[in-house]
Predict the 3D structure of the following.
Amino acid sequence: MYVELALPIPMGTLFTYALPEAFSFCQPGMLALVPVGRSQRVGVVWRILEEPAWTQGTIRPIHDILTPEPLFDADLLYLLDWMSRYYLKPLGQVVAAAMPAHLRFEPHHRAIWLARIGSIKPEWEPLVALLEKQKSLTLTTLKRHLGAQDLEKNLRVLEKQGILRLETQYRPKYPHETSTQPWSLSSAVDIEEEPAKELNPEQRMCVDYLTAALNTGSSRPFLLEGVTGSGKTEVYFRMVETCLILGRQVLLLVPEIGLTPQLVHRYLARFKTDLAIFHSGMSSRQRFEAWQRLRSGQARVVIGARSAIFAPFIDLGLIVVDEEHDPSYKQEGGIPYHGRDMAVVRGHKAGALVILGSATPSMESLHNANQGRFIHLKLNTRATGAPLPTIRTIHLGREENQRTGARSKHPLISLPLERALRQTLDKGLQGLLFLNRRGWAPSLLCHRCGHAVMCPNCSVTLTYHDKKSQLICHYCDHRQPPMDVCPDCGQLSLFFFGPGTEQLEKETRDCFPTARIARIDRDSVVSKEVDLEKTLSAFRDGDLDILVGTQMTAKGHHFPRLALVGVVLAESGLWQPDFRAAERTCQLLTQVAGRAGREDNAGEVWIQTFDPGHYALKAVVHNDNTGFVRHEMALRQETGYPPFQRLALLRFSSLIQEQGERYCRVLAENLPVSPVATLLGPAPSPLFKLRNRYRWQVLIKENPGEKLHGFLGHLLKTAETLASNAIRIDLDVDPHSFL
Ligand SMILES: [Zn+2]
Ligand SMILES: [Zn+2]
């Protein structure tokens, strides 16, 4: 018998090994230890064969099977295989990226006592005596007693003599990580039990629909589009409940688990059952343990970020992808998979009900619904009966909205917004000021020569961070103190340009000196300036008046006393070289606006902008997502962008600019031509230099009615064949970032 294995090696094949008689119990999904060159590696058994697929050269036998049960079930193997084909990445690399912890095993040696045979040198006597007494000891223990010097050599001599036997066991290797599981059932003990909420007629209809689909095993995914505050979570929870009663397992995917502690909290308050949490901050050990609790059926619900799509299940009945439009479902770098798309693939294979939920669904999912591939359900009213907030724009270009004087004290908060926020605070209610840029100012400019201070490693400006008094690159983390003199013209003419959250916080404090204010963004959270969970709950409980922050404040939070949301600069996301810029802006602003007035207090939203006529902003103001979608879909169809035509992005980079340029010319002459796709480039990437590498890209656009994948394989092979070792090539299928 033979086995084919996926090894964590960047080669596009499975590896064949002989399967000795002793391992006849071997099944796909088990981990095997095999020789690779002179070393040993752990691989995943993919297939068992009667005859090897390939007969040249010698086929070496596997050394051991490390797991008595398959660690990966058929559904997971299918998913990984699907990903490898779709994203054109070697299977072993997909496995290693999906489950790094499971492929790290390390040898543990042990000496086992046999008998006193022959003459024993006096210097060996302590070792022999110790082992004779204990019968079996690990190498680590022996070293502690006798020192490491010559120990292994001596053991081997003694083994030859027949005095002892050396045994090697492979055990999972856990790096020493210190992160902790943020939530567990034990922490739920104090959580007050929360009963199921009454369903309104719209929610009831959705639940009935979904329950019928769950019972009949319908395989079409559902797109649940519900305005902010419409009670999508309650719909999910009803389905979780049904699934648990049926004895099946549940996967709840959320964009960023650190930002959604409330969902976990609400889940625990409601169900009080054990759940496994998967997120990127977990250590390998925690991941492995969570994995085992699921495999044993002890935990039946997983809440996690995108990588939880690789969690093992015995009987998966339901997958929920909350905020399915969120960009963080797309993995950047490595295997560039999209968590939502993988959820659909996995759900289909497992026969599980898939619900994709959002207030502002992605164009891709809406297109799938229009094409009949998804079933579209809608929640048009807020669950509490509260009306949607009133939204107004403030045209920053108009004089009456500007602060007078070049050095105004509060340039970021316009007079109408200041007035409205003051009234809100006077009523004892809360405000949220949103700006999706961290730091003090995104650039340091010279007002004489126009020079902008750039990162030495990347082609981006350095952001000034006042708290650290440093200029920081948000891509490579390069740091330097700000200079006084322009590096280009030598004049004392540098000034900070553009707003950031630090500046906004300072200005808010100046404007509202008696208000209790906190800032939430990556900097304040990472530097532990604020405790994210505590700050969010303080704001929820009314112990803070104003929250200032980035998109971290926008995600799914429910603040009962929040009445006013101010968007400081609406178009900051529109200035990206990205065909999704308008869609993302619309989604983000709808989400942040949706935080206002969720309970008894009427909500109001003020959007500051220089471009109030932009269709994305107009749609947000009029709560007209349908209108936005119509406009955007027409635009995408006309220009041939997703969801109508598939895209792929071939990126390549080099440390030396000339090498990259040379490769660029060679590639341009040799790019394959095909009726399947239109190729744009090679051209320098918008972010031309990143972490000291010079970057170029070719955009591949699927032609209408064609299938891109066969061509992509061919293109990738051509690009790789032409490249020297100095060129790094990466293919991103369905790219979400075009920088
Ligand atoms: Zn200058
Ligand atoms: Zn940089």
